[in-house]
Amino acid sequence: MTRAEDLAHRLASVRAAVRSAAHAAGRDPGEIRLLPVTKFHPVSDVGILRDLGVEAVGENRVQDAVEKATRYPDVAVHLIGQIQTNKANAACRVAAAVHSLDSVRLAEALNRGTALAIERGQRPGGPLPVLVQYSFDGDPRRGGVPESGIPELLDALSRCSNLTLSGVMCVPPVGSDPAEVFASAADLRDRLATTGKRPMELSAGMSGDLGDAVAAGSTIVRVGTAILGPRG
């Protein structure tokens, strides 16, 4: 089996799983976007996925996002991993969205980086959509901002004219109940949507827990291993 055939089979299986989860939750499958996560996989896989109808992928590392976005500019690259502030400028040049905003410092760095990219004509898409990475357990080692830190981050975002708050992202801590974590993140998403008076995304669910995520209201499911196979 060729790599293209393997990815086609895996992608079709995950798409079917998302549809099944949506129907089980009484949701329209069209409300849920599948974001294949290509981290640690070759650039060529992005091209194969594009030919299979994939319009966006997720990347953890800024340098990999730059490489893949440069090679395949017609595929949107979402940054889903932690971003060091010294890499914010590079991130802003290529990211279609950042799912891992978790500090005032990073918000300010992304705001400056986006302004610079727009000024230099490196970002024709305008403001950068960002999702707040919600930390369910407040463990700083895993990234994310706890509930107590949300007001300060939202206040900072209100001053960042080059960023657009687009929703909430979460990753369940090891040993936690994914359904409980996703429900908590969905509640935060709903509160932000009410305050902002516009729809907000919930980026939640991976290969092993996408069913719980879809049931909780996820609109973006990030799937790596089930589509791309074991990491290289």
TrEMBL record:
Pfam name, any one: Ala_racemase_N
Keyword line: Pyridoxal phosphate
Gene Ontology molecular function, alphabetical: pyridoxal phosphate binding
InterPro entries assigned to the protein according to its UniProt record, in alphabetical order: Ala_racemase_N, PLP-binding_barrel, PyrdxlP_homeostasis
Domain Alanine racemase N-terminal span(s) in chain numbering: 16-230
N6-(pyridoxal phosphate)lysine modified-residue sites: K39
Cofactor(s) for this UniProt protein: pyridoxal 5'-phosphate
Matching SUPFAM superfamilies: PLP-binding barrel
Record NCBIfam families: YggS family pyridoxal phosphate-dependent enzyme
Known role: Pyridoxal 5'-phosphate (PLP)-binding protein, which is involved in PLP homeostasis.
Protein family per UniProt: Belongs to the pyridoxal phosphate-binding protein YggS/PROSC family.
Protein's recorded name: Pyridoxal phosphate homeostasis protein
